[in-house]
Amino acid sequence: MSGSRPGRGAGNRSRKKWVILFVTPVLVFILAVVLVAGFSGAIVKQRIEKHFGDRFRAEEILIGWGSIKARKIQILNQGLTVLTAQTVELRPDWLSLFHKGFSISSLEADGLVLRIEQDRTGLLILPVPVYVLQKALQQLARIGIHQLDRAVLKGTIFYQARHLSGPNELKAEEVRLEIRDLVYPHRDHPVPFTARALLSGPLASGRLDLNSSINFFREQFAFDLAGDNLSLFNEEPHGPVLQTASYRLTGSTEEVAGGRRIVADLTLSGPSVKLATDARGRLVSPFPRKKKGLSDQTPERDRPRFYLLRNLRVTDGRFLFLDGKIARPPQALEVTNWSGEMHRLSYPFQDIWADYQASGRIPGPGPPGTIEISGKMNLKTADHASRVQLRNVALLRLSPYIHKQGEARITGGTFDADMNLTIRGKTLHAPTQVVLRDLTLAPKTGASGLFVGVPRKMVLALLKDNKNRIVLNFEGQGRIDNPTFSLRENMLSRLTVGLAKRLGLSVVEIGEKVIVEGIGGTIRKLGGGAGQGR
Questions:
Q1: From CA 59, how far away is CA 72, in angstroms rounded?
Q2: What residues contact 64, with CB distance under 8 A and at least 6 apart?
Q3: 155 conformational bin, left if phi > 0, alpha if psi -120 to 50, beta if neither
Q4: SS3 assignment, position 459
């Protein structure tokens, strides 16, 4: 018994030695990894800050076995903070270290606040200058193929275009961007890309969801954008130019002879469109405009060949036109329950015929009238062919366009109209039939006692003799490239001529002027200021 004890003690000591020999290096290695990882994070942080100077700041960077984490990142440009992030976590594919290039399994950034701006010259100010990004990509390409399996970015984006007047600010909240299977140098395959955000600000507001795929190698993409409660160009005093309950825009790039185009389809449900003209009759552009003296900074080679809106569909819409030339405040013309379609609308304008058809209601007073329009137009040549049909429209809606100072005011009645409008080679022809029903006029005012340039009494007598119904046929015509041409004045002159001839009055036309000789030698000169006496 006593002889066996030393042998067992020696065996135990031998086993302890082997345990110490194996375990000690492992513990030392683990401790070294922990220490080195901690120090390496600090070293990486110092080197990044040294490389970028004052443009980059981070509270800490931690390097572990499975991931690299950074906390409270801040990027500055010209002394302004353009990007912050609460956390950024990168999970490398360590096995890729044994191959040429490097792969990242995932990249997740949370609490991002990104500011994008265009200065007064239109130059885009990014968190990292473009030349820095280009240089980094060139260096990566020399090393080998790099792959990002998945990236998810969450946060808020602020955008301001200082080179634009009018609405030029946008805020995107609850942003979530995700991209998968990104390879550099680019390969010939689609890269899935999704985004969602809640927009606010004068430039745009509403919700959007985007699903798209991008082939960076071929510079091609396809997208499906949808959302609701969209408002565009919300500028006082008239409010948003476009509002819609819901929308969907789908599209893709197509190769065509001579280049590339973007083809899209747009559906709007419950839209409200608002346009206005100033006191000179010029359209008040709802879109942001460049400040005077600035030129477009986008090189021609970087632009798509053109855009083609293949199909535009509108249901249950509202259109409001504020005519500042007619009245102050602007005269409002409204169409409700607007539904229709337009096909092949191009920009920049191409030699393509876009066809369309639409219908809607024109509010009273009284029961609403209706409007139907159909036809086609060539935006490049300004050629046009359309048919317009109006039924039961309240004459009071047209009163500001017909009534002239000193003439009888319209107090009631309705009208129907059928117009076939064509424009060929800048020349307009518009054969029109108008039916006036139950026309009532205010008592005689002023010395003239006229209605659209003809004696008021004779018009009322004609109504009485024809059961309160007057049918007039006339044709609007003129050169639309003539600076003095006005479709409104032209049609009003034609209406005066048609009514005067029905009354048996003498009508003399001299160029653009119309002279009506009435009872007692009354002379009225119309055209280029229709309805104005001399």
A1: 5
A2: 37
A3: left
A4: helix
Q: Give the residues across from 306 on adjacent strands.
A: 261
Tokens of 11: 């065996």
Per the CB < 8 A criterion, the answer to whether 341 and 355 are in contact is no
Number of H helices, E strands in the chain: 5, 29
Residue corresponding to tokens 């005689």:
444
The burial of 216, by beta-carbon neighbours within 10 Å (0-12 exposed, 13-18 middle, 19 or more buried), is given as middle
Q: Are 165 and 288 in contact (CB under 8 A)?
A: yes
Q: C-alpha distances in angstroms, 65 versus 91, 243, 534? A: 9, 51, 94
For residue 453, give the nearest of 530, 520, 529, 350 by alpha carbon.
530
Task: For residue 512, give every residue at least 6 positions away whose Cβ sits within 8 Å of its Cβ, in sequence order, or none.
Answer: 478, 484, 527, 528
C-alpha span between 197 and 153 (Å, rounded): 12
Do residues 340 and 356 touch, judged by C-beta distance below 8 A? yes
The C-alpha R_g of the chain, in whole angstroms, comes to 36
pTM (2 d.p.):
0.78
- DSSP structural state of residue 397: G
Give the β-pairing of 353-362 and 289-290. unpaired
What is each CA distance from 82 to 3, 49, 112, 128, 176, in whole angstroms?
Answer: 81, 16, 10, 9, 18
Task: Look at the chain and count its residues.
Answer: 534
Q: How many CA atoms lie within 13 A of 28 on its CB side?
A: 6
Spell out the residues 6+ positions from residue 140 whose beta carbon is closer than 8 angstroms to its own: 146, 184
Bond before 192 cis per omega within 30 degrees: no
Beta pairing partners, 469: 437
Checking if the pLDDT of 528 tops 70, the result is no
Identify whether 237 is preceded by a cis peptide bond (ω within 30 of 0): yes
Q: Is 531 left (phi over 0), alpha (psi -120 to 50) or beta?
A: left
Lowest mean pLDDT among 7-21, 166-180, 413-427, 468-482: 7-21
Q: Predicted confidence band at 238 (pLDDT cuts at 50, 70, 90)?
A: low
Q: Alpha helices, DSSP H only, in 368-469?
A: 399-402, 456-465
Q: What phi and psi, each to the nearest 5 degrees, are found at residue 94? A: -65, -30
494-499: long-range contacts at Cβ-Cβ below 8 A with a sequence spacing of 24 or more? Answer: 494/432, 495/434, 495/452, 496/452, 496/453, 496/454, 496/524, 496/526, 496/530, 496/531, 498/434, 498/472, 498/473, 498/474, 499/452, 499/454, 499/459, 499/470, 499/472
Residues 6+ apart with CB under 8 A from 207: 196, 197, 198, 199, 227, 228, 229, 230
What is the C-alpha separation between 369 and 372, in angstroms, rounded?
A: 10
Name every residue whose Cβ is closer than 8 Å to that of residue 178 and which is 6 or more positions away in sequence: 150, 151, 152, 153, 193, 194, 195
Distance CA 504, CA 319 (A): 40
Q: Tens digit of pLDDT for each residue in 119-147?
A: 888 777 777 666 666 666 666 566 555 78
Residues in contact with 28: Cβ distance below 8 Å, sequence separation at least 6, in sequence order? none
